[in-house]
Amino acid sequence: MPVWIFGVSFIVVVTATAVVIRYSVEGSVNLFHILLSGFLAINLMVCFLELCLYRQRDMMDARKNYWKNRAKQEGVSPARAFMTSRVSWAPNKILAPSFWADSYATYANYDPAYTDDSSCGFNVDIANGFWTLLPTLILLVNFTSPMLPALVVGLIGLVIFYQWIYGTGMYVGSFFVSKRHHLLPWAEVFIYIWVINVVWILLSVQGFYVSLYLVLDQHYGILGFPVTHPIAIPG
């Protein structure tokens, strides 16, 4: 299976599972829930990739050159070369850090910061992988079928979504301050820097908005649950 199909399938399956569980348990669907479930599913996948990056950090420079040369041989961009490569379903292959770390080795052809474990971009992503995996699961579960008080989930959401807004903005700023955009065609800067990161910030702002209302209202009404939901009000 091509890597891009596997990635899209993972996001769709996790999001659809959350929507189906919510409908079967609560009997409703909600646009905020759908969008944030998709966003949190993406971050679950990203956390795994970032942990793989950490495990394989000493190999990034060599793998960057591998994908650069392979892309030239195939006459495509490094990103397309990786995304169209095939992933095996064998457990020792599909979960191998050495395979998935290549997602960042490929991206290092656009931003060489990922070959330098002292760079801002590298450490922001590594921190996200270690720090946000558990909170992402907590938010996804409680946005789907609340188990914790809205105040608790809202506070977790405020911290995590603010971190994503700040961290992403800091990364984009560091990319341009260091003038790495001069090394790339404008189309690649637009797609891989502006589009990806602006979408990430916008979805984080949406999550921050929802989390703020969870804290202020102390119920899950912002996500379409009844105000009288049994776990809506703590105590």
Short description:
This protein is mainly α.
Describe the model.
- It is a single chain.
- With 235 residues, the protein is mainly alpha-helical.
- Helix content is 71%, strand content 0%.
- The protein has one domain (3-223).
- It has eleven helices and no strands.
- Helix 2 (31-55) crosses helix 8 (120-131), helix 2 packs antiparallel against helix 9 (133-144) and helix 8 packs antiparallel against helix 10 (150-177).
- The longest helix has 32 residues, at 186-217.
- The model has no long low-confidence stretch (mean pLDDT 88).
Number of strands: 0
- Spans with pLDDT under 50 lasting ≥5 residues? none
Order of helices and strands: HHHHHHHHHHH
Number of domains: 1
Distance between the termini: 49 Å
- Rounded to the nearest angstrom, the radius of gyration is 19 Å
Query: Given the structure, what is the number of helices?
Result: 11
- Helix proportion range: over 70%
| Biggest sheet statistics | none
> Approximately how much beta-strand content do the residues carry?
under 5%
Task: Give structural attributes.
235 residues, mainly alpha, 11 helices, 71% helix, globular
Write the layout of secondary structure elements.
Blueprint: H1 3-26, H2 31-55, H3 60-74, H4 78-83, H5 91-94, H6 97-100, H7 102-107, H8 120-131, H9 133-144, H10 150-177, H11 186-217
Helix pairs in contact: 1-2, 2-8, 2-9, 2-11, 8-10, 9-10, 10-11
